[in-house]
Design a protein that fits this description.
Solute carrier family 23 member 2; 610 residues; single chain; 62% helix; two-stranded antiparallel ribbon; transmembrane transporter activity; mainly alpha; 4 strands; transport; 27 helices; transmembrane helix; membrane
Length: 610
């Protein structure tokens, strides 16, 4: 069978039958071996391969061209921007820096800088999945609980003004700066100490293999509600931002859907210069940059409508939040350069109550990340992560939280669900792209003005993006049910109860603050944090019920899930994609490494004993 010219272009071939250099040669491709003439008996195998490749433009181990890595990495930077910047903005008031734009800009630079470091660490030696690390909302609740204690209440405005006047009348101007900074830095140091110690728990869970041990008992009925609730639990945040102007939010959704779905098969003619000739080639531009194009298109519309004064200028009126000139002060007040460094706010302080409360956030973040790993592997064309990769990923997240505590972000780090969802929309699951994102976050975290520009993205635009992204996450969770017997009343009961409880209990606890009073404040904090975390509740009930209610492996979906995992291991790529680079020789040489549950050599021992 001879392919037509159109079929060659769709397969990424030139008219002569070789790989089109504009599409980038993937790992393992042998360009000279590809030919156009194919015998009839192999047609079905070819079509099967083409269908799989059509799902992902670039899979986990592929290396897109450098310019694509920068553009795609920048797209991930934009997607994570709203979630990461929300953390310091939420903490601004309890840290007593609500009106201190300089302190806020320094916090923003710090959290982006550390997020970039942690992303590089996770993609290089952690799970090695294309997963972005950033600030986590699981730490927000215990942080707010700590700062709500009487000793950390912000000073009254009148007292602050009086102190300021007294200091201005004195000749010690440096003392004024020191005391005004000490008001919020002392609070930050308390949060740093709590995160620093609590993160040791996450490291122990990963390096000891306790996380991997529990994974043996986790099936689709535990994973599905966990991932599903990651998306569903964020509907309030998406609704708040979209509600600022539903028209703009709808425009953002339509543009993302237009580029990612309706125009995904449309290739844009582009020009390249190669071999001393100008060549025209077709490129899937809309599929790769659908989220970026959608956001930028809606952002441009908001900018034009702001210039022509279509949106109201009063904050109390509907549609004001769609203006692009609301946060211009933040751009003006941001420093051009700010290089974060460990201990920039002083030496962290420690207290038992703060540490115990923060440990609840660590447990919730760990549960959420395990679900994220499975979702990321599925969307990036990788096999399900083996036990050693998950152990190492959780341990590296613990190290990332320690780095965040040392630098003083006021938060920890965790896997970012919205960026995982972007993998499913853009069909780009390359690890190298996320490593480029990490480098961009470090560099742009130093340039304060550049990051501040993106604060001007209107809330309705971010809300529209959230509607698509969080819906994708929820759908990925539901997709795990394909292995489960949904005609079984047992499975329906477990799925329904765990999902519904994950929505009901957090809502009730939020509606009844202070209802938990055991007499021990630290225990109260742990209970409240755990039971206000949607995915923890859903995953916990799914895990307990699935392992206690009688059912066969086939009914529970365990058998199909494992068979599918083995098939994916053969068809997609070898599990060696989870190995630590440049270390295989050393790990195989010394026998002691076979007993460490966070190293790739550990799997050899398990296979040999099973």
């Amino acid at each position: 069978m001879r392919l037509t010219t159109e079929e060659k272009i769709e397969l990424g071939l030139t008219e002569q039958g070789t790989v089109n250099p504009a599409f980038g040669v993937k790992d393992g491709d042998e360009q000279p071996q590809l030919t156009v003439d194919i015998e009839e008996p192999h047609t079905e195998a070819l079509e099967e391969t083409v269908d799989k490749d059509a799902e992902l433009v670039y899979s986990l181990n592929d290396r897109p061209p450098w310019y694509l890595c920068i553009l795609l990495g920048f797209q991930h930077y934009i997607l994570a921007f709203g979630g990461i910047i929300a953390v310091p903005l939420i903490l601004a008031e309890p840290l007593c820096i609500k009106d201190n734009n300089i302190a806020k800009s320094q916090l923003i630079s710090t959290i982006f800088f550390v997020s970039g470091l942690c992303t590089l660490l996770q993609t290089a030696v952690g799970t090695r999945l294309p997963i972005l690390q950033g600030g986590t909302f699981s730490f927000i609740t215990p942080t707010l609980a700590i700062l709500a204690l009487p000793k950390w209440q912000c000073p009254a405005p009148k007292a602050s003004v009086l102190l300021s006047v007294q200091l201005q009348n004195s000749s010690s101007s440096p003392l004024q700066m020191e005391d005004s900074g000490e008001v919020w830095m002392s609070r930050m140091r308390e949060i740093q100490g709590a995160i620093l110690v609590a993160s040791l728990l996450q490291m122990v869970l990963g390096f000891s293999g306790l996380v991997g041990f529990v994974l043996k008992y986790i099936g689709p009925l535990a994973i599905a509600p966990t991932i599903n609730l990651i998306g569903l639990s964020l509907f309030i945040e998406a609704g708040k931002k979209s509600g600022g102007h539903w028209g703009i939010a709808a425009l953002t959704v339509c543009l993302i859907l237009l580029f990612s779905q309706y125009l995904s098969k449309v290739d844009v003619p582009m020009i390249t210069y190669k071999d001393k000739k100008w060549k025209v080639f077709q490129y899937p531009l809309f599929k790769l940059f659908s989220a970026l194009f959608g956001m930028c298109g809606a952002w441009l519309v908001c900018f034009l409508l702001t210039i022509f004064d279509v949106f109201p200028s009063k904050s109390a009126e509907y549609g004001f939040s769609a203006r692009t000139d609301i946060s211009l002060d933040a751009v003006r007040n941001s420093p051009w350069f700010h290089v974060p460094y460990p201990g920039q706010w002083g030496v962290p302080t420690f207290s038992v109550s703060s540490v115990l409360g923060m440990m609840a956030g660590v447990l919730a973040s760990t549960m959420e990340s395990i679900g994220d790993y499975y979702a990321c592997a599925r969307l990036s064309g990788a096999p399900p992560p083996p036990t050693h990769a998950i152990n190492r990923g959780i341990a590296v997240e613990g190290i990332g939280c320690i780095l965040a505590a040392l630098w003083g972000t006021g938060n920890g780090t965790t896997s970012y669900s919205q960026n995982i969802a972007a993998l499913g929309i853009t069909k780009v699951g390359s690890r190298l792209v996320l490593q480029t994102t990490g480098i961009l976050m470090i560099v742009l975290g130093i340039f304060g003005k550049f990051g501040a520009v993106f604060i001007t993205i209107p809330d309705p635009v971010i809300g529209g993006m959230f509607l698509v992204m969080f819906g994708m996450i929820a759908a990925v969770g539901i997709s795990n049910l394909q292995y489960v017997d949904l005609n079984s009343s047992r499975n329906l009961l477990i799925l329904g109860f765990s999902t519904f409880s994950g929505l009901v209990l957090p809502t009730w606890f939020h509606s009844n603050p202070g209802i938990i009073d055991t007499g021990i404040k630290e225990l109260d904090q742990v209970i409240v944090v755990l039971f206000t975390t949607h995915m923890f509740i859903g995953g916990f009930f799914g895990f307990i019920l699935d392992n206690t209610i009688p059912g066969t492996d086939k009914e529970r979906g365990i058998k199909s899930w494992r068979d599918k995992a083995q098939q994916e291991n053969k068809n997609l790529c070898d599990v060696s994609c989870y190995d630590i680079p440049f270390c295989n020789g050393v790990l195989k040489r010394f026998r002691c490494f076979q007993y460490m549950p966070f190293l790739p050599s550990y799997k050899t021992t398990q296979e040999g004993t099973s």
